[in-house]
Design goal:
about 45% helix, alpha/beta, about 240 residues
Length: about 240
């Protein structure tokens, strides 16, 4: 699937390989998977964008993205790591992280067409869920939730309707929660940053409750090769 993503052109967007010497390019569908590619993970996290123009344009951040697949200084990732550790007892490397959009918005472009999100989720994200088969998948934010819901054949109502109401997709329980960046925190509740954070943490408490006391799978054997094996197995039986 990584190769398919690499050769896919998306009108109005840059490919990961064409910017700044391919700083964000990788052998996965999403750069986020570089540091979180446990194919046996019980927890999958689905973010919005694998790379942002403003991040990889900065050489200091670019080097981090090249090595880790994400910007470790970004509040979004710092808070996500906190939530994973506190509520699910997982380090990022013990999970499988991916993103719906793995092309880069040009500088100054603020919006992502919904049809693009649905198309990319249907082509890649849904396939990743079927390959990894996690116990839970967590969609971060309303745009990700919309894309995954529509790609899975469900009607995407308002974000308020789907938040805290997980749905079953094959073997996976899919949760839709607010994004972990600043915007997600301040819009989760009208009370501002503190109220938003409290609401988000209650959401993650519910996710933790849905996990029960299931044992954590080992993070060994991580990598694109294992994903390729499972893709081959699926194609062979389809």
């Amino acid at each position: 699937m990584a190769r398919e993503r690499q050769v896919t052109e998306l009108e109005g967007f840059h490919s990961l390989g064409e910017l700044f010497g391919g700083a964000a390019e990788c052998q996965f569908v999403s750069p986020w998977t570089r540091a979180a590619g446990n194919i046996d993970a019980r927890v999958m996290v689905i973010g919005l964008e694998g790379a942002r123009y403003t991040e990889i344009a900065q050489i200091t951040v670019r080097n981090e993205v090249r090595q880790l697949g994400y910007n470790p200084f970004d509040r979004e990732h710092i808070y996500l790591d906190h939530l994973l550790q506190r509520y699910l007892g997982r380090h990022r490397s013990e999970c499988y992280l991916t993103t719906v959009l793995n092309h880069v918005r040009p500088k100054g472009v603020r919006t992502i067409p919904k049809r693009v999100l649905v198309e990319q989720a249907r082509r890649f994200t849904i396939a990743e869920i079927r390959i990894v088969r996690p116990a839970i998948a967590i969609c971060l934010g309303k745009l990700v939730s919309y894309g995954v819901l529509r790609a899975s054949g469900r009607i995407a109502r308002s974000f308020a309707d789907v938040r805290r109401r997980p749905f079953r997709f094959d073997e996976t329980l899919v949760w839709c929660v607010s994004a972990t960046g600043f915007h997600g925190l301040v819009t989760r509740r009208n009370g501002g940053f503190r109220a938003g954070r409290q609401a988000i943490e209650r959401d993650w408490e519910m996710i933790a409750g849905s996990m029960g006391n299931a044992p954590l799978r080992a993070a060994g054997g991580v990598g694109q090769a294992r994903i390729t094996e499972r893709v081959s197995d699926q194609r062979g039986t389809s």
